[in-house]
Amino acid sequence: MTQHDNGYRCLWSIALVPLHSLNGAIFQHDELDLKRKNHFVRIDQTSRNMELKAMDANPNGGGDMKKSASSRFQVARVDTKENQGKENGADVQSKPNNQRKKSFEFRMKSHDLPKIEIGAKSASSEGPLSIGPESPNATTFSLSGDSLRSRSSVDGYNKTHCVMNTMEALPCVDHYRNVFSATGGGNLKARPTLAELHEERDDEEIRANKKEPVKIYDGISQGSPNHTDNIQIVSAVRFGWIQGVLIRCVLNIFGVMLFIRLSWVVGNAGILQASIIVLLSGVVTTITAISMTAICTNGEVKGGGAYYMISRSLGPECGGAIGLIFSVANTVAVAMYIVGFAETVRDILVRYDCLMIDEINDIRIIGSITVAILLAIALVGMDWEARAQVILLGLLILAIINYFIGLFIPPTNKQMSQGFFGIKGEILEINLHSGYEQGESFFSVFSVFFPAATGILAGANISGDLKDASKSIPKGTFLAILITTLVYLFMAIFLGASVQREANGIILASVTEVVNVSGMVGPSTTTPGLGASVAGADPVFTERDYSYTREFVGNCSLVSHGCKYGLLHSYQAVEMVAAWGPLVLAGIFSATLSSALASLMSAPKVFQALCKDKIFPFLVYFGVGYGPSDSPRRAFILCFFIAFGFQMIADLNLIAPLISNFFLMSYALINFSCFDASIARSPGWRPSFRFYNKWLSFCGSILCIVVMFIINWITALITFGCVGSLFLYIHHRKPDVNWGSSTQAHVYRNVLQSALKLIRTGEHIKNFRPQILVLSGEPDTRPALVDFCTHITKKMGLMVCGNIIIGGQSENLRKLQTEAPYTYFRKRHIKSFYSATTAPSLQLGAQSLMQNVGVGKFRPNLLILGFKSKWQTDRPETVQQYLGIIHDAFDLKYGVGILRVKEGFGLDIETNTTVFDTNLGDDGSDDESPRETNNGILNQVSRSEQQSKEVTEDEEERDDNDEERDVEKSLTPKKKGGGDEKSKPTMLRPQLTELDEEDHGDKSVEPQANNPLLLKKLNTQVLKTMNKFRNKEQGTIDVWWLFDDGGLTLLLPYILTTKAIWRGCRLRVFAAGTKSGDLGYEQRQLATLLAKFRIDCKDMTVLPEINKKPSEESVKLFNSYLSKWRLEKGETKEKFPWKTTDDELELVKEKTQRQIRLRELLLERSSSASLIVMTLPMPRKGTCAAGLYMCWIDTLTRDMPPILLVRGNQESVLTFYS
């Protein structure tokens, strides 16, 4: 007895499924499955049984599990729940013990194999089992986040087995889908993360940590007891390329022009120029269609049509501007088509003398009723609208055929009186050239005709309702352009060859009719040759005296009111030529109403897409959709009122030029989008449509702009003004969107090319810019330090915030990969980069940053550190490392700056406490070593900044939205309930400064931390400290330029005075004098030097007293600080390198006295300054220990206003040469 016959009997199936197609949805025997855009497939029990029989038909399936090396197919074994209980029941008792044991061991080995859930979808319960990927009976494997593993149940693993025991996922379309897209959803499969594949974690732990969202449909959870197989999902209507694109484009392109204005165009422009107008419109639309096709085939196109394509290509600025204007243009087009329809109805009323009021007001009344009816049809839904379009297209085709048939039917007397003589060579010759009416020209006629060409976007505008927009839009649009262009050309030629420009409409009376009339009224008194006149009525022309010749019919002087017929004067020329006039009327109605309906459907769809992107926040209200098709009812209502207002103009020739420029601008940007994406050379630009050319698109864009100005330069300027204003508004708002536009590709490409170009350019003093690497740690913990450096580099140089994380890489991955600093930069309007590194010590981390941060010429040249305020109590090793960082910086030819603010830099205040948010989210709780965030206090700061009334504006920086905000008046934390966000409870926790990160000992929270008064005081203090350098400063910036370091000590304060925050401060320069020099001469020399450097400074002081000895009290105070840093008996320099010896003290005695004396002078002259910038003492290697150097720095900066000690790299940064 074989294993196949034992208790663990398995059903084997040879599933020939290509590996590349193992990306289908999960099918489960006893559950519903979600397949392609929320369509539920209920598995038929009958078809399932048929498939089981088909699989049972392979008795040797269990013994053949091999796959050839060259095969592309996967062999899988599947257990079924239906037969498992039966097989494990009766059959197992008849097995020998050894076979039962073997089966048990086999099951245990198979327990860890991945589970393949398999099911079938069948259109019928009969027929062989198909293995094709598109077959209704196709068997599909699941490749969800764990590839061949199922996320549904761990217990099910002992029921299903597969030869591929791996967590790897095969390629699947869901892996590359945007989860936030309209077609996405919560049921998308995801590839395993890098951590799941790479980390040493148990498979069950990985599955347990996966948070699978509960799929709920119509309020019923799939996993709930109430879940049944009878759930019906109403799917949205989707159209193919014929119904969705071709029909819409054809109807829209024909629109109002084909039957109502084409005759007028031919009458004015003649056959040749009319053909040029049609072909020029065709060229513009064809080039635009080629560009649009390239964009459409470069990925899935969502709802929004032209707006979607332009915004995703050129960014939200261009896309938002043109999207709003394009929506308005489509809405105005509705009014244009309705006016064309109303004109036709009005002419019928005139013909039968049935006017309601007058000709103009009748158009308005008919148009108002029509637009209301179209709104009702649009609100019913896309399905009904599409059905109506098919009926209208049928009427339109019949009307066109009816016209061509009428050309070959002999004309009646009435037709000849109105200018139609059939196809005649003489008429063709006369109408071949132009004959413009007064006030008309080629471009004025072109501006009236061109809106017909705007119909090419009718299909693209409903791209969100197409089954496959990338294929439907190109196919339908190109075919529509070809068909409509040919029809327009043939109709224009035949109209020009058969109808005169002008006709008087006189119908000749027979002699019998004249005699009868004369006998009734008496003898004729008419002038000979003019026929009979009846009681003063219009002259009667008889067939005896006249005939229907071109000369007679074209003589407008024979009628008192002038000619009212012919190509120039009658908009119903096509109807007059047709075999049956009423059918042409039906065609006019179908063309105008279908175009109006298509535009009324397109405009709200585009507008809805614009609103959903939240480019204009005040328009979000109109983006709400209703029903399965996401119908924009509010946008429909808005478009209705706009169309209603414009149709009240009641003149088609006035409305058409208004929208021509708007559509031309849209076409220009579509072409430019294709050109821009091509020259950006982004790897993501891979359109499957290959028959495009970037230069052709560029020429199409230029052609559209030229035509705009030729049609009407005033309207073109207005259009550019509207687009430009909207562009600037969106650019000012900076919407938080990232669409991967070609603008981003251009930025990267330009930066890369510029960086490479700079490498080949030598350094020059005039182009020196301070490029700062600031050791800020996490930037939000030292906002004052970051703000100060920002004032130096803003719009001038590079700034990088460096964070040294003490420890290894593996335990600090989240900190290394976090994007939180850039979020903080955006909130505080800081232009900076962020770089983090891990290292076993602070000095090694600083070395890593200084050596590796930057690229090419974009590398820091100035290192700025915060002063180590706890140097007396900290471990000596960290103090030694602090000095080592300064030495390393000088070795790498960095300038060095040390900033000290007595209040601290923000959250590293002297109390060694900070305020943190205790409501940590999932990310915080899941982190094994969570970062102690300061969201609580930062939220208060953010609210403070938003409530700030006084905003510091820099005239040179207004276009960058980087104004510095004054928060001095709003330092008190906001009360609960006073804002959009509720105040979160806060608590005190210890804060480790960056330079203290090696202290990993646990620090208990001080008992007084729970004191609410202390908490309030601390919050206020932190707020003041964090915003120390964000308020306008007044007073002086004192520059103590003691030694020539290349000019950096002088350049930095000058740069600060050019910024908005420090503009109210004046420079004061203090310089050291010689021991026996002429004070006046030295001061004049200093003034001359500053003048040569073009640095405006009125207050300069030379201080010869710097070289005097300090007071005994100051010396004693200095010695008290130095006492613990002096080498004692029994200690060696090798063991305590941070301590100084007596020999070293004697060697630098004069230098030490100078630092003490400088402190006295600082207290005397600069204690009230807003900022002090002083030359940093130079620590010479081997002669200045860390303790002694920190004593120097502390002596100079203690209890001072904000002070920056800076030292250049002894290379010139200032020059007086031009």
What does this structure look like?
With 1218 residues, this protein is of the alpha/beta class. Helices cover 45% and strands 8% of the residues. It is elongated. The chain starts with 11 loop residues before the first strand and ends in an 11-residue tail after the last strand. One of its GO terms (biological process) is potassium ion homeostasis. Keywords: Cell membrane, Chloride, Glycoprotein, Ion transport, Membrane, Sodium, Sodium transport, Symport, Transmembrane, Transmembrane helix, Transport. The chain crosses the membrane at residues 245-264, 270-297, 318-342, 362-381, 390-409, 442-464, 476-497, 577-600, 635-656, 662-680, 701-730.
Short description, anyone?
The protein has 1218 residues and is of the alpha/beta class. The protein is 45% helix and 8% strand. It comes from Elysia crispata.
